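CORE FACILITY INTAKE
Project code: CF-77B
Contact: R.S. (postdoc)
Sample description: multi-component assembly, two entities in total
Requested service: structural model of the whole complex
Turnaround: standard
Below are the sequence entries exactly as provided by the requester. Do not edit them.
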Amino acid sequence: MLKILSTYLALAALLVVWPVQRLGGEPGPVTEPQVKAAYLYNFVKFVEWPSGALPGGAAALTIALLGKGARNAPFEALSGRQVKGRRVQVRQIGRVEECAGCQVLFIMPSERTRLKEILRAVPSSGVLTVSDIKNFCSLGGMIGLVTRNDKVQFEVNLGAAERAGLRLSSQMLKLSLSIVE
Amino acid sequence: MNVSSPRLAPPRRLAAASLLLLACGLCEPAALRAESGDPTASGQEYLDLGLEDLMNLTVTSVARKSQRVSDAAAAVFVITQEEIRRSGVTNIADALRLVPGLDVARIDANKWAVSSRGANGRFASKMLVLFDGRTVYTPLFSGVFWDRQDTVLEDIERIEVIRGPGAALWGANAVNGVINIITRPAWDSTGKLVSAGGGTSERGFAEFRYGSQLSAQSALRLYAKYLSRAPQDAVTGQEANNGWSALRGGFRFDSEPTQQNSFTLQGDIYHERLHDTYVRMVPAPDTLLHTTPVLGLNVLSRFKHSFSDQADFELQFYYDRTDTDLGVIKEERDTYDLDVQNRIAGFGPQEFIFGGGFRFSHDQLANQIPALTLTPTGEDTHLASFFVQDDITVYPDRLHLILGTKLEHNSYTGWEVQPNARLIYTPNRQHTVWGAVSRAIRTPSRGEESLSLYQPGPVPGVLIHLQGNDRLEAEELLAYEAGYRVEPTPVLSADLALFYNRYRKLSVFQPSLAPQPTPFGPLVALPFTLGNFGRVETAGAELAVDYRMLPWWRLRGAYSYLSFLSAEAQAGAQLGNLRGSSPRHQFSLRSSQDLSREVELDLWLRYVSALSFTDTSNGSAVGVPEYFTLDCRLAWKPVSDFEVALVGQNLLERQHQEFDSQELATQATRVPRGVYGKLTWQF
């Protein structure tokens, strides 16, 4: 048993010394809202909107943030980025009705108590709903962000997305924590 | 050396396997890294991470960060759910071994000694332990019955441990540390969880949890758990009587009807059967075998209201009942506790937290053997406490001064004041320096007040009569602490804490040489009476290093050192086991590897230096040798809902001793090597 241990420790020691060089390029400490913003950016890449839901030409793709909080800043950093040949535009809204013409609606946790009404008021087609509210998918949302063991993961409500005419890539489904039909 | 020897084969295979995995692992991050986006947007590199990178990223939540700035002017360590799961531990006491500097020793299969910075014992009196805000410190002998502290381990969100005197906010007797076990809110544990397994020491266990989102605003969780643990052999090598079984169930309901209000209601009920072997009993026979039934239940409710970002209010009430027959004494205890806490920020650079609490405890005892009696058999005790803390921002984001005090009134010693001052300096994200000076007290327990315990004495025919003292004063500590945390790179962090503790008025036994008659016929006894005669100075250091070497391989090391600079008892009193019951050195190294998306491998090596106890009867020394031990966990998760884990514990030796319980002595045992398997299904 000590033999196994010493082999293992020697190997570990080797690794401790070696990879220090590689760390320079790693991203700095990232906060939970930043990771969620990065997820949102990825979702936009992996979702296909029905023709007609996207504005004509190369007009901007709009992400609406519903609800206010200090956490909005990382999401606003998405503004100006390029995706699918379009510029991303982030808009802060106070009422769900203002999300008309948006492609993505991110619902902040401050809206938790009003969630059911909000989901009912979202246009029936062409708007991807994302939130980090608990059990967002079971309550009818499309993509829910879940923090588990200090890691952010996501679950998907495939039925809700399909009803809105959205197609989620299979690669994304494969990585999701769970798929609610 | 013969290379073809079968004994050598396994290590070679393992090394080869590790190298292979290593090679795969090193290629992996590069392959998964998403292509770079807009290079002009500096500070937003996180937006360029791909989905797989994001999933593997560990985040620091905003809430925790703010807590780090304001509250961590202390030696804090947080055990996460992930660490509990990956360590392979099956109970909360063993999980506490994950904390650098915490001293956890298993006395027998159903008893543990847990303390920090010295004075460990089954009735380690200087640690405050809270379970979701409920104090689980027993006023009977002062200390914690660790067997009773349990739940579905998967539902524990984190365990926060503060070594050293708790900040002024915490409850009574937070002298050497505070352990705060926090379960997940009900909406973070929705779905069903079924888990079962068994092995050698863990004879069998099964748990079931059902969590449900009742509405958008509320959720409920229910659980049930059963376990049966095998006895450990006595140090003499014989089979011993200390196995046990426990059945428990409970619920937690969380609701947040509006953004400003939240409400929690939770409760547990449990029944245990503990096999105990008491030794050094008088009169003959020396040994008492007993099966201890424990029945406990508790209900807690908590209401939080936030007036604004700047102010909130919290109200908590709980009721706790335990009913046990220890074989040497029976205890029924009812505790009622009410706590209020307010936070108000926005007085310029200051943030106030103030509040108070009232606890009332009623017990009904039945003395069962003439050798041990407590009087009176029924007693009501109370504890009223008030605290205020002011967190002053001396320089925004850089320098905080935290001043606080606690004022307490208890049934035994009346009013007590416990002030503390803390300073924390964070020059930048990478470095934190803090210092603290605190006064803390420990109030006497029921047992210390009125104990009468006869033990064998130095010569046949002469006993020792340990006696409580109803005029005992509180034990006092003046603690000086300092710490430094550094995070030179995002993957490497280190945390160093230093302390110097000066204890006064420790309660120790003062012997008398005048024999007195006993209830046991011709036998006479030398009375040993408790008094505040102990004076001890300790100093030490605790170091923790966390290195996320590769995205799939994390190493964590810890070392702690404890030294008794002086230890003396005045007026001819004896220090007993204050000094020898805690190890001078402790060392731990943990390795956590994700060998693939489905397979996890965890190894945990620990070293604890020797202990030296004094036999109360004749003053002779009883040593517990140093030990090295290794735990190993291999888990396979073929699909996301299902996990199979194989855990080996204490693998390096067939068995080793960790403690020798001298107070209300039970048979000394050795912790055996153990293996168990566990299946977990979440759906």
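Facility notes:
- The radius of gyration of chain B is 26 Å.
- Confidence is low (pLDDT under 50) at residues 1-42, 60-70 of chain B.
Invoice: internal transfer
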